[in-house]
Amino acid sequence: MKKAGILNRHLAGALAELGHGDAVLVCDAGMPIPKGPRVVDLAFRAGVPSFAEVLDGLLAELVVESATAATELHDANPPAADLLDEHFPELGLVPHERLKELSADAHLIVRTGEARPYANVLLRCGVFF
User: For residue range 92-115, what is the model confidence (pLDDT) as tens digits?
Assistant: First the structure.
């Protein structure tokens, strides 16, 4: 058994399969999940695990070249907006409906237990070299 890093075997395996340019959607419990992408559902109960916890864990494992969130985020969920702005100074913003459309092309969707609106971000994988 691993002693550090991501312990969830489904998530660890999915992350190992990602390549440059692949997209990962990290989403709240209310985000509609499109058919097609691989889904790792970490939601245990409302708020557990939080969007911030999952995002921080993923960012420790991934190289991210860009991130996209919903324009509605800043008004509807300031704590999540602050978190994303802190991690991604050049955060791209699109309407929530467009983010849902883009999520259909994600390679992986990681569902958190977050129960606040618009706690969703689409990460585009980079390379470490």
Answer: 999 999 999 999 999 999 999 999
CA distance 92 to 82: 14
Give residues with Cβ within 8 angstroms of 19, minimum separation 6.
Answer: 125
Exposure pattern of 91-106 as b/e (b: 16+ CB <10 Å)? Answer: bebeebeebbeebeeb
pLDDT value at 1 more than 80: no
Distance CA 63, CA 88 (A): 12
Across the chain, mean pLDDT equals 95
DSSP secondary-structure letter at 45? B
Residue 76 near residue 8, CB atoms below 8 Å: no
Q: Distance between CA 97 and CA 51 in Å, rounded?
A: 20
Q: Which of 20, 74, 96, 107 is catalytic?
A: 20
Predicted confidence (pLDDT) at residue 2 exceeds the cutoff of 80: no
| CA quadruple 82, 88, 89, 95: dihedral, nearest 10 | -70
Amino acid at 83: L
- Is 107 assigned a catalytic role? no
